């Protein structure tokens, strides 16, 4: 245990915790959006994230032709490449999330199956995607080309404001603000909140439930795809099981903030990212994943309704 690192590297740990926590927040939005509408956990969202990271590599290496050992890009070419990779990842994750809804949820819901059947179906889809990618990649990790040169804006109080770290902080905040405004102000957002409050009453109001649910999965897939792009840009690698720890962390962030609550998922991700960084600095990096499980257990034991104090049974999107 090294407590001195907290004082010597405090602001550096805060900055890294913000970057990691905001990536968690984007993935947790996928969990909390679906839960807000269906009252079910989309366990396949972790594999949606995993495939999103591979989609980023596929776009950068195969589509745009940048090999793993490519030199960093600059100017318009860099912006163009990163935008295409981001859009490709978001589209791939959004399409996959909608397919998961169609395969794992809609048919069972149409037949009146109970929630346990839907949960088992989602777990089955998750295992299918995980094992499928394991066989395709032969369990080998994949490396992303360093197209973004990791230059620094400078240091403040020991915190290195590197370009990829700043990007991982600014981009999720912009996405969250846009999503929050969309859910609260747009017609579709109001329909999502109406279905979240009462599916039966929403039907009586003429809302197309299936369309709203599909759009909810699509939005969750878009935020998860953005998280996959940022993760790949910062860490520059992926592997077939990268979604496991990310999924557990994102789910914990959603529970920590109050699952079903958009702002709760956002702040829960921030809090979890901070706790992970400080725990790994003090106890060692091997305790990073353990921290997530400890936080999840403690939240479920002492405050299962999350930090926002909203009852799970009455959660609103």
From TrEMBL:
Assigned protein family: Belongs to the binding-protein-dependent transport system permease family. LivHM subfamily.
Subcellular location: Cell membrane
A cellular component annotation (GO) from this entry: plasma membrane
One of the protein's GO biological processes: L-alanine transport
InterPro entries the record matches: ABC_BtuC-like, ABC_transp_permease, BCAA_transport_permease
Gene Ontology terms for molecular function: L-isoleucine transmembrane transporter activity; L-leucine transmembrane transporter activity; L-phenylalanine transmembrane transporter activity; L-valine transmembrane transporter activity
PANTHER family reported in the protein's UniProt record: BRANCHED-CHAIN AMINO ACID TRANSPORT SYSTEM PERMEASE PROTEIN LIVH, HIGH-AFFINITY BRANCHED-CHAIN AMINO ACID TRANSPORT SYSTEM PERMEASE PROTEIN LIVH
Main location: membrane
Membrane topology recorded in Swiss-Prot or TrEMBL: Multi-pass membrane protein
Protein name according to UniProt: Branched-chain amino acid transport system permease protein
Transmembrane segments: 20-41, 48-66, 78-104, 116-136, 156-179, 212-232, 244-266, 278-302
Keyword annotations from UniProtKB, A to Z: Amino-acid transport, Cell inner membrane, Cell membrane, Membrane, Transmembrane, Transmembrane helix, Transport
The keyword Transmembrane belongs to this UniProt entry's keyword annotation: yes
């Amino acid at each position: 245990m090294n407590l001195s690192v907290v004082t010597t590297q405090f602001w550096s740990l805060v900055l890294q915790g913000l970057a990691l926590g905001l990536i968690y927040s984007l993935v947790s939005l996928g969990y909390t959006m679906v839960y807000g509408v269906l009252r079910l956990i989309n366990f396949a969202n972790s594999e949606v994230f995993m495939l999103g990271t591979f989609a980023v590599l596929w776009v950068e290496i195969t589509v745009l032709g940048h090999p793993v050992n490519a030199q960093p890009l600059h100017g318009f070419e860099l912006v163009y490449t990163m935008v295409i990779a981001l859009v490709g990842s978001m589209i791939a994750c959004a399409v996959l999330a909608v397919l998961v809804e169609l395969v794992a949820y809609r048919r069972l819901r149409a037949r009146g199956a109970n929630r346990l059947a839907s949960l088992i179906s989602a777990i089955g889809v998750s295992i299918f995607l995980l094992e499928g990618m394991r066989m395709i990649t032969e369990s080998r990790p994949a490396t992303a080309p360093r197209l973004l040169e990791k230059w620094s804006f400078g240091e403040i109080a020991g915190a290195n404001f590197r370009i990829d770290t700043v990007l991982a902080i600014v981009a999720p905040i912009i996405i969250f603000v846009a999503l929050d405004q969309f859910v609260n102000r747009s017609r579709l957002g109001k329909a999502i909140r109406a279905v979240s409050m009462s599916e039966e009453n929403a039907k009586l109001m003429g809302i197309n439930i299936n369309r709203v649910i599909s759009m909810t999965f699509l939005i969750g897939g878009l935020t998860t795809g953005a998280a996959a792009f940022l993760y790949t840009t910062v860490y520059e690698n992926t592997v077939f099981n990268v979604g496991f720890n990310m999924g557990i962390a994102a789910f914990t962030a959603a529970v920590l903030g109050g699952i079903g609550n958009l702002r709760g998922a956002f702040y829960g991700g921030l809090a979890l990212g901070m706790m992970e960084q400080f725990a790994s600095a003090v106890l060692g990096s091997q305790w990073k994943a353990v921290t997530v499980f400890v936080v999840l257990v403690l939240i479920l034991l002492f405050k299962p309704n999350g930090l926002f104090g909203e009852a799970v049974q009455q959660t609103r999107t």
